[in-house]
Amino acid sequence: MTDGNSLNKPNCVSPIINKSAVKKVKIDKIFLIITLCLVLFGALIFTSAALGLLAGSGAKYSDVAVSHIVFGIGLGLIAMVFSSRFDYKHLRKYSFYLYISALALTFLVFVPGLNFEHGGAKRWIDIAGVTFQPSEFLKLAFVIYLAAWLAAMREKVSTVKFGFLPFLILLATAAAALLPQPDTDTFLIIFAAGLGMFLIAGAKIRHILTLGAICVVLVGALAFTRPYVMERIKIFINPAANPQGSGYQIRQSLIAIGSGEIFGRGFGQSIQKFDFLPEPIGDSIFAVAAEEFGFVGSVLLIMLYTAFAVRGFKIASRAPDRFSGLLVTGIVILIISQSFLNISAMLGVLPLSGLPLLFVSHGGTAMLVTLFAVGIVLNISKYQRNS
Known about the structure:
- By secondary structure, the chain is mainly alpha-helical.
- 64% of the residues lie in helices and 5% in strands.
- It contains 13 helices and 5 strands.
- It has helices at residues 29-57, 61-83, 89-93, 95-107, 135-153, 160-178, 184-200, 205-225, 227-237, 248-259, 285-317, 322-347, 364-381, and strands at 22-24, 115-118, 121-127, 130-132, 383-385.
- The strands form 2 sheets. The chain has a 3-stranded antiparallel sheet with strand order 2-3-4, with no helix packed on it. It has a two-stranded antiparallel ribbon with strand order 1-5.
- A hairpin with a 2-residue loop joins strand 3 and strand 4.
- The radius of gyration is 21 Å and the shape is globular.
- Residues 1-6 and 11-17 have low confidence and may be disordered.
Protein backbone atom coordinates (compact mmCIF):
# COMPACT_ATOMS: atom_id res chain seq x y z
CA MET A 1 0.00 0.00 0.00
CA THR A 2 1.61 3.21 -1.11
CA ASP A 3 -0.61 5.58 0.81
CA GLY A 4 -1.17 4.50 4.41
CA ASN A 5 -4.35 6.50 4.94
CA SER A 6 -6.03 4.84 2.00
CA LEU A 7 -8.39 1.90 2.14
CA ASN A 8 -7.50 0.79 -1.37
CA LYS A 9 -6.17 -2.64 -2.19
CA PRO A 10 -3.42 -3.53 0.31
CA ASN A 11 0.06 -4.24 -0.87
CA CYS A 12 -0.03 -7.99 -1.28
CA VAL A 13 3.66 -8.35 -2.10
CA SER A 14 4.87 -9.50 1.29
CA PRO A 15 8.51 -9.33 2.33
CA ILE A 16 10.61 -12.36 1.46
CA ILE A 17 10.00 -14.98 4.10
CA ASN A 18 12.78 -17.30 5.10
CA LYS A 19 11.32 -20.70 4.31
CA SER A 20 13.51 -22.30 6.94
CA ALA A 21 11.66 -20.23 9.55
CA VAL A 22 8.39 -21.98 8.67
CA LYS A 23 7.72 -25.69 8.95
CA LYS A 24 4.84 -27.62 7.46
CA VAL A 25 3.01 -29.93 9.84
CA LYS A 26 -0.15 -32.02 9.79
CA ILE A 27 -3.52 -30.34 9.99
CA ASP A 28 -4.61 -29.50 13.55
CA LYS A 29 -6.65 -32.61 14.36
CA ILE A 30 -7.77 -31.30 17.75
CA PHE A 31 -9.37 -28.21 16.20
CA LEU A 32 -10.96 -30.40 13.52
CA ILE A 33 -12.39 -32.82 16.12
CA ILE A 34 -13.81 -29.94 18.19
CA THR A 35 -15.48 -28.53 15.08
CA LEU A 36 -16.98 -31.88 14.08
CA CYS A 37 -18.29 -32.37 17.63
CA LEU A 38 -20.01 -28.99 17.43
CA VAL A 39 -21.52 -29.87 14.05
CA LEU A 40 -22.76 -33.29 15.22
CA PHE A 41 -24.11 -32.03 18.54
CA GLY A 42 -25.68 -29.09 16.70
CA ALA A 43 -27.36 -31.39 14.16
CA LEU A 44 -28.77 -33.49 17.02
CA ILE A 45 -30.21 -30.44 18.77
CA PHE A 46 -31.53 -29.00 15.52
CA THR A 47 -33.29 -32.24 14.58
CA SER A 48 -35.22 -32.28 17.83
CA ALA A 49 -36.05 -28.57 17.76
CA ALA A 50 -37.17 -28.72 14.10
CA LEU A 51 -39.49 -31.68 14.67
CA GLY A 52 -41.14 -29.83 17.52
CA LEU A 53 -41.69 -26.73 15.40
CA LEU A 54 -42.99 -28.62 12.42
CA ALA A 55 -45.43 -30.62 14.53
CA GLY A 56 -47.01 -27.36 15.60
CA SER A 57 -46.90 -25.41 12.34
CA GLY A 58 -47.55 -28.12 9.79
CA ALA A 59 -44.55 -27.06 7.75
CA LYS A 60 -42.64 -29.55 5.64
CA TYR A 61 -39.62 -30.96 7.41
CA SER A 62 -37.92 -31.50 4.04
CA ASP A 63 -37.83 -27.74 3.37
CA VAL A 64 -36.01 -27.05 6.63
CA ALA A 65 -33.79 -30.12 6.35
CA VAL A 66 -32.62 -29.26 2.84
CA SER A 67 -31.67 -25.68 3.74
CA HIS A 68 -29.83 -26.62 6.93
CA ILE A 69 -28.61 -30.20 6.76
CA VAL A 70 -28.02 -30.54 3.01
CA PHE A 71 -27.11 -26.98 2.03
CA GLY A 72 -25.66 -25.83 5.34
CA ILE A 73 -23.90 -28.87 6.77
CA GLY A 74 -23.41 -30.91 3.58
CA LEU A 75 -22.08 -28.15 1.34
CA GLY A 76 -20.44 -26.55 4.38
CA LEU A 77 -18.28 -29.61 5.01
CA ILE A 78 -17.32 -29.70 1.33
CA ALA A 79 -16.44 -26.00 1.53
CA MET A 80 -14.38 -26.68 4.67
CA VAL A 81 -12.37 -29.38 2.89
CA PHE A 82 -11.82 -27.05 -0.08
CA SER A 83 -10.71 -24.05 1.99
CA SER A 84 -8.39 -26.26 4.04
CA ARG A 85 -6.48 -27.26 0.91
CA PHE A 86 -5.95 -24.17 -1.29
CA ASP A 87 -3.09 -21.74 -0.64
CA TYR A 88 -4.42 -19.30 1.96
CA LYS A 89 -2.06 -16.60 0.65
CA HIS A 90 -4.45 -16.11 -2.28
CA LEU A 91 -6.93 -14.66 0.20
CA ARG A 92 -4.49 -11.85 0.94
CA LYS A 93 -3.91 -11.22 -2.75
CA TYR A 94 -7.59 -10.84 -3.55
CA SER A 95 -8.82 -9.52 -0.17
CA PHE A 96 -9.82 -6.10 -1.48
CA TYR A 97 -11.91 -7.57 -4.30
CA LEU A 98 -13.53 -10.07 -1.93
CA TYR A 99 -14.59 -7.27 0.41
CA ILE A 100 -15.92 -5.02 -2.35
CA SER A 101 -17.87 -7.95 -3.83
CA ALA A 102 -19.33 -8.84 -0.42
CA LEU A 103 -20.34 -5.20 0.13
CA ALA A 104 -22.03 -5.03 -3.28
CA LEU A 105 -23.85 -8.30 -2.61
CA THR A 106 -25.04 -7.01 0.77
CA PHE A 107 -26.37 -3.79 -0.76
CA LEU A 108 -28.55 -5.91 -3.08
CA VAL A 109 -30.94 -6.47 -0.15
CA PHE A 110 -32.23 -2.96 -0.84
CA VAL A 111 -33.13 -3.80 -4.47
CA PRO A 112 -36.89 -4.40 -4.90
CA GLY A 113 -37.61 -7.79 -6.40
CA LEU A 114 -34.39 -9.32 -5.10
CA ASN A 115 -34.82 -8.84 -1.38
CA PHE A 116 -36.81 -10.99 0.99
CA GLU A 117 -38.30 -9.27 4.03
CA HIS A 118 -39.00 -11.00 7.33
CA GLY A 119 -39.98 -9.43 10.63
CA GLY A 120 -39.62 -5.94 9.23
CA ALA A 121 -35.98 -6.48 8.21
CA LYS A 122 -34.53 -6.72 4.70
CA ARG A 123 -31.58 -9.05 5.27
CA TRP A 124 -32.08 -11.75 2.67
CA ILE A 125 -31.82 -12.11 -1.09
CA ASP A 126 -34.23 -14.39 -2.93
CA ILE A 127 -33.11 -15.64 -6.33
CA ALA A 128 -35.23 -18.30 -8.05
CA GLY A 129 -36.54 -19.51 -4.70
CA VAL A 130 -33.08 -19.76 -3.14
CA THR A 131 -32.81 -17.47 -0.13
CA PHE A 132 -29.55 -16.50 1.51
CA GLN A 133 -28.19 -13.81 3.84
CA PRO A 134 -25.33 -11.85 2.23
CA SER A 135 -24.18 -10.36 5.54
CA GLU A 136 -22.68 -13.77 6.38
CA PHE A 137 -20.29 -13.37 3.45
CA LEU A 138 -19.62 -9.77 4.46
CA LYS A 139 -18.46 -10.82 7.94
CA LEU A 140 -15.81 -13.15 6.59
CA ALA A 141 -14.74 -10.82 3.77
CA PHE A 142 -14.34 -7.97 6.28
CA VAL A 143 -12.01 -10.07 8.45
CA ILE A 144 -9.96 -11.23 5.43
CA TYR A 145 -9.48 -7.70 4.11
CA LEU A 146 -8.78 -6.24 7.55
CA ALA A 147 -6.11 -8.89 8.19
CA ALA A 148 -4.46 -8.07 4.85
CA TRP A 149 -4.60 -4.33 5.49
CA LEU A 150 -3.28 -4.55 9.06
CA ALA A 151 -0.46 -6.83 7.90
CA ALA A 152 0.52 -4.28 5.26
CA MET A 153 0.40 -1.33 7.69
CA ARG A 154 2.55 -3.00 10.34
CA GLU A 155 3.88 -0.31 12.77
CA LYS A 156 1.74 2.42 11.14
CA VAL A 157 -1.33 0.83 12.73
CA SER A 158 -0.61 2.76 15.94
CA THR A 159 -0.88 6.15 14.22
CA VAL A 160 -4.03 8.21 13.79
CA LYS A 161 -3.51 9.05 10.12
CA PHE A 162 -2.56 5.62 8.87
CA GLY A 163 -4.23 3.41 11.46
CA PHE A 164 -7.15 4.78 13.47
CA LEU A 165 -8.89 6.87 10.80
CA PRO A 166 -8.69 4.29 7.97
CA PHE A 167 -9.94 1.61 10.37
CA LEU A 168 -12.84 3.85 11.33
CA ILE A 169 -13.68 4.36 7.65
CA LEU A 170 -13.59 0.61 7.06
CA LEU A 171 -16.03 0.05 9.92
CA ALA A 172 -18.25 2.78 8.48
CA THR A 173 -18.52 0.94 5.14
CA ALA A 174 -19.78 -2.16 6.93
CA ALA A 175 -22.18 -0.06 9.01
CA ALA A 176 -23.56 1.57 5.87
CA ALA A 177 -24.47 -1.84 4.48
CA LEU A 178 -25.85 -3.39 7.67
CA LEU A 179 -27.53 -0.76 9.85
CA PRO A 180 -30.17 0.34 7.30
CA GLN A 181 -31.44 -3.27 6.91
CA PRO A 182 -31.55 -3.11 10.00
CA ASP A 183 -28.95 -5.65 11.15
CA THR A 184 -27.39 -4.07 14.23
CA ASP A 185 -26.36 -7.40 15.73
CA THR A 186 -24.21 -8.48 12.78
CA PHE A 187 -22.48 -5.10 12.75
CA LEU A 188 -21.66 -5.48 16.46
CA ILE A 189 -20.10 -8.89 15.74
CA ILE A 190 -18.00 -7.37 12.96
CA PHE A 191 -17.06 -4.51 15.29
CA ALA A 192 -15.94 -6.96 17.99
CA ALA A 193 -13.80 -8.98 15.58
CA GLY A 194 -12.32 -5.84 14.03
CA LEU A 195 -11.54 -4.31 17.41
CA GLY A 196 -9.77 -7.48 18.57
CA MET A 197 -7.69 -7.65 15.40
CA PHE A 198 -6.89 -3.93 15.56
CA LEU A 199 -5.67 -4.26 19.15
CA ILE A 200 -3.52 -7.32 18.43
CA ALA A 201 -2.04 -5.61 15.36
CA GLY A 202 -0.59 -2.87 17.58
CA ALA A 203 -3.26 -0.20 18.00
CA LYS A 204 -2.90 2.16 20.93
CA ILE A 205 -5.15 1.64 23.93
CA ARG A 206 -6.53 5.18 23.69
CA HIS A 207 -7.65 4.43 20.12
CA ILE A 208 -9.38 1.25 21.30
CA LEU A 209 -11.12 3.18 24.11
CA THR A 210 -12.19 5.85 21.63
CA LEU A 211 -13.70 3.21 19.35
CA GLY A 212 -15.48 1.68 22.34
CA ALA A 213 -16.94 5.07 23.25
CA ILE A 214 -18.08 5.58 19.65
CA CYS A 215 -19.80 2.18 19.75
CA VAL A 216 -21.61 3.07 23.00
CA VAL A 217 -22.78 6.37 21.52
CA LEU A 218 -23.92 4.58 18.36
CA VAL A 219 -25.92 1.99 20.31
CA GLY A 220 -27.44 4.80 22.38
CA ALA A 221 -28.45 6.65 19.23
CA LEU A 222 -29.99 3.50 17.79
CA ALA A 223 -31.91 2.93 21.02
CA PHE A 224 -33.55 6.34 20.72
CA THR A 225 -34.21 6.12 16.99
CA ARG A 226 -35.25 2.47 16.73
CA PRO A 227 -37.91 1.35 19.21
CA TYR A 228 -37.00 -2.35 19.02
CA VAL A 229 -33.48 -1.62 20.30
CA MET A 230 -34.83 0.37 23.25
CA GLU A 231 -37.36 -2.37 23.97
CA ARG A 232 -34.60 -4.99 24.12
CA ILE A 233 -32.68 -2.87 26.61
CA LYS A 234 -35.77 -2.39 28.77
CA ILE A 235 -36.52 -6.12 28.78
CA PHE A 236 -32.92 -6.87 29.66
CA ILE A 237 -33.15 -4.56 32.67
CA ASN A 238 -36.53 -5.96 33.71
CA PRO A 239 -37.26 -9.38 32.13
CA ALA A 240 -40.63 -9.56 33.88
CA ALA A 241 -41.92 -6.51 32.02
CA ASN A 242 -44.47 -7.13 29.26
CA PRO A 243 -44.46 -10.94 29.64
CA GLN A 244 -46.93 -11.43 26.79
CA GLY A 245 -45.18 -8.98 24.47
CA SER A 246 -41.53 -8.07 24.08
CA GLY A 247 -40.60 -10.02 27.23
CA TYR A 248 -42.27 -13.23 26.06
CA GLN A 249 -39.22 -14.81 24.41
CA ILE A 250 -36.80 -14.39 27.30
CA ARG A 251 -39.50 -15.52 29.74
CA GLN A 252 -40.16 -18.73 27.79
CA SER A 253 -36.44 -19.28 27.31
CA LEU A 254 -35.77 -19.11 31.05
CA ILE A 255 -38.68 -21.48 31.69
CA ALA A 256 -37.21 -23.97 29.21
CA ILE A 257 -33.70 -23.71 30.66
CA GLY A 258 -34.98 -24.08 34.22
CA SER A 259 -37.13 -27.06 33.27
CA GLY A 260 -34.05 -28.94 32.09
CA GLU A 261 -32.62 -29.02 35.63
CA ILE A 262 -29.40 -31.09 35.94
CA PHE A 263 -29.71 -33.80 33.30
CA GLY A 264 -32.61 -32.54 31.16
CA ARG A 265 -35.90 -34.04 30.06
CA GLY A 266 -34.22 -36.19 27.42
CA PHE A 267 -33.70 -35.97 23.68
CA GLY A 268 -36.88 -34.90 21.89
CA GLN A 269 -38.75 -34.31 25.14
CA SER A 270 -38.77 -30.49 25.20
CA ILE A 271 -42.19 -29.03 25.96
CA GLN A 272 -41.39 -25.36 25.36
CA LYS A 273 -40.58 -25.92 21.69
CA PHE A 274 -44.24 -26.76 21.09
CA ASP A 275 -46.02 -23.41 20.54
CA PHE A 276 -44.38 -21.70 23.52
CA LEU A 277 -40.80 -20.82 22.59
CA PRO A 278 -40.45 -18.40 19.64
CA GLU A 279 -37.91 -19.38 16.96
CA PRO A 280 -37.05 -22.78 18.49
CA ILE A 281 -34.81 -23.64 15.50
CA GLY A 282 -33.41 -20.10 15.35
CA ASP A 283 -32.02 -17.88 18.08
CA SER A 284 -33.91 -19.77 20.84
CA ILE A 285 -32.39 -23.16 20.08
CA PHE A 286 -30.03 -23.07 23.09
CA ALA A 287 -33.09 -23.03 25.35
CA VAL A 288 -34.33 -26.21 23.64
CA ALA A 289 -30.92 -27.82 24.15
CA ALA A 290 -30.87 -26.81 27.82
CA GLU A 291 -34.35 -28.21 28.40
CA GLU A 292 -33.56 -31.55 26.79
CA PHE A 293 -29.95 -32.03 27.96
CA GLY A 294 -30.05 -30.04 31.19
CA PHE A 295 -27.24 -28.23 32.98
CA VAL A 296 -24.75 -30.97 32.11
CA GLY A 297 -25.49 -30.81 28.38
CA SER A 298 -25.46 -27.00 28.37
CA VAL A 299 -22.07 -26.89 30.09
CA LEU A 300 -20.72 -29.46 27.63
CA LEU A 301 -21.84 -27.32 24.69
CA ILE A 302 -20.29 -24.18 26.22
CA MET A 303 -17.08 -26.12 26.89
CA LEU A 304 -16.93 -27.12 23.22
CA TYR A 305 -17.16 -23.46 22.15
CA THR A 306 -14.52 -22.55 24.73
CA ALA A 307 -12.20 -25.30 23.47
CA PHE A 308 -12.80 -24.05 19.92
CA ALA A 309 -11.66 -20.57 20.96
CA VAL A 310 -8.62 -21.74 22.94
CA ARG A 311 -7.39 -24.04 20.19
CA GLY A 312 -8.09 -21.42 17.52
CA PHE A 313 -6.06 -18.76 19.34
CA LYS A 314 -3.25 -21.28 19.78
CA ILE A 315 -3.18 -21.80 16.01
CA ALA A 316 -3.09 -18.01 15.57
CA SER A 317 -0.14 -17.71 17.96
CA ARG A 318 1.86 -20.21 15.88
CA ALA A 319 0.81 -18.83 12.49
CA PRO A 320 3.65 -18.44 9.97
CA ASP A 321 3.08 -14.76 9.18
CA ARG A 322 1.31 -11.63 10.39
CA PHE A 323 -1.57 -11.91 7.91
CA SER A 324 -2.44 -15.52 8.76
CA GLY A 325 -2.24 -14.88 12.51
CA LEU A 326 -4.60 -11.92 12.30
CA LEU A 327 -6.94 -13.81 9.99
CA VAL A 328 -7.27 -16.78 12.35
CA THR A 329 -7.82 -14.39 15.27
CA GLY A 330 -10.59 -12.57 13.42
CA ILE A 331 -12.35 -15.78 12.37
CA VAL A 332 -12.29 -17.20 15.89
CA ILE A 333 -13.62 -13.95 17.39
CA LEU A 334 -16.40 -13.82 14.77
CA ILE A 335 -17.60 -17.33 15.60
CA ILE A 336 -17.16 -17.23 19.37
CA SER A 337 -18.54 -13.74 19.98
CA GLN A 338 -21.71 -14.54 18.05
CA SER A 339 -22.18 -17.90 19.75
CA PHE A 340 -21.64 -16.58 23.27
CA LEU A 341 -23.84 -13.56 22.53
CA ASN A 342 -26.66 -15.92 21.58
CA ILE A 343 -26.21 -18.10 24.68
CA SER A 344 -25.92 -15.06 26.97
CA ALA A 345 -29.12 -13.60 25.53
CA MET A 346 -31.04 -16.83 26.16
CA LEU A 347 -29.77 -16.82 29.76
CA GLY A 348 -30.77 -13.19 30.26
CA VAL A 349 -27.14 -12.11 30.78
CA LEU A 350 -27.23 -9.84 27.71
CA PRO A 351 -30.09 -8.26 25.73
CA LEU A 352 -31.78 -10.40 23.08
CA SER A 353 -29.84 -10.29 19.84
CA GLY A 354 -31.69 -12.35 17.24
CA LEU A 355 -28.40 -13.89 16.11
CA PRO A 356 -28.33 -17.65 15.43
CA LEU A 357 -26.21 -20.03 17.48
CA LEU A 358 -23.48 -21.06 15.03
CA PHE A 359 -23.17 -24.79 14.32
CA VAL A 360 -26.62 -25.33 15.89
CA SER A 361 -29.33 -22.90 14.73
CA HIS A 362 -31.16 -23.14 11.41
CA GLY A 363 -29.41 -21.16 8.71
CA GLY A 364 -27.81 -22.66 5.65
CA THR A 365 -25.80 -19.56 4.74
CA ALA A 366 -24.41 -19.15 8.25
CA MET A 367 -23.38 -22.82 8.45
CA LEU A 368 -21.82 -22.79 4.98
CA VAL A 369 -19.75 -19.66 5.62
CA THR A 370 -18.78 -20.74 9.13
CA LEU A 371 -17.45 -24.11 7.97
CA PHE A 372 -15.62 -22.45 5.07
CA ALA A 373 -13.98 -20.13 7.62
CA VAL A 374 -13.05 -23.11 9.81
CA GLY A 375 -11.37 -24.63 6.76
CA ILE A 376 -9.20 -21.52 6.44
CA VAL A 377 -8.09 -21.93 10.06
CA LEU A 378 -7.28 -25.60 9.41
CA ASN A 379 -5.34 -24.56 6.31
CA ILE A 380 -3.20 -22.13 8.28
CA SER A 381 -2.70 -24.70 11.05
CA LYS A 382 -0.57 -26.71 8.62
CA TYR A 383 2.13 -24.04 8.75
CA GLN A 384 4.01 -23.02 11.89
CA ARG A 385 6.91 -20.78 12.77
CA ASN A 386 10.01 -22.61 13.91
CA SER A 387 10.65 -21.74 17.53
